Automatic annotation (TrEMBL):
This is Methyltransferase type 11. Pfam families: Methyltransf_23. InterPro entries: SAM-dependent_MTases_sf (IPR029063). It comes from Rhodanobacter thiooxydans.
């Protein structure tokens, strides 16, 4: 188990993870109107929040881990002092144009229906939720026994869980889309088709109805 500081250092130093983060941030920033605010849900150590604030977007941050929050408070101390990054104790403590959830935050939920209902109270109509989730179809995981053991569950149910300390769940996109209704519709999935076989993460864009 990594400490928050170790996780932070690793994420900043990992070229593969930085490439994923860059693509996610670029997609979020292209979708956001100038100066629009957002909630970074499961903000971790504040790497994304710092980038959003630097691009002129007031950013609320919600992070349930006390250790991560401490690291975030140090990393984003200037942005927090300038109120460009604002920590909230609950997602419901803010209203924003968008919610972003990067690096598998939503994979920690067994069922997303209640979460999307809550986020519908955060995101203004016309806004969006952008989530980066672990891709259950990624063939790079086929070398692991847990992937092969759950192939049938994925095909039949569109969902499976991996026994671990982190309680990670993996979902087919249509399962998450069903949970998001009637408050959000799935507007975009990246990648699509055969691209799902070679990418560890998939980006799901949900539009607030």
């Amino acid at each position: 188990m990594h400490t928050a500081e170790q996780y932070h250092a690793f994420m900043l130093a990992s070229p593969r993870d930085q490439a994923v983060r860059d693509r996610f941030q670029q997609m979020a920033l292209e979708l956001l109107p100038d100066g629009a605010d957002l909630l970074d849900f499961g903000a971790g150590t504040g790497i994304d929040a710092k980038a959003y604030a630097a691009s002129g977007h007031p950013t609320f941050v919600y992070e349930p881990s006390a250790e991560m929050r401490t690291c975030l408070a140090h990393y984003c101390r200037d942005e927090i002092a300038g109120e460009r990054v604002v920590a909230v104790a609950s997602p419901l403590a803010c209203r924003a144009h968008a919610v972003t959830a990067n690096f598998a935050v939503l994979n920690h939920f067994a069922d997303h229906a209640a979460l999307f209902q809550e986020l519908s109270c955060v995101v203004r109509r016309g806004g969006f939720v952008l989530a980066s989730m672990l891709n259950p179809y990624y063939l790079g995981d086929a070398r692991y026994g847990w992937w092969r053991a759950n192939a049938t569950n994925l095909l039949r149910k569109g969902h499976y869980a991996i026994p671990s300390e982190s309680h990670i769940h993996r979902f087919a996109p249509h399962v998450v889309a069903r949970a998001a209704a009637p408050y959000f519709r799935l507007e975009r999935l990246v990648p699509r088709g055969l691209g799902l076989a070679v990418q560890l993460y998939m980006f799901l864009l949900f539009r607030r109805i």
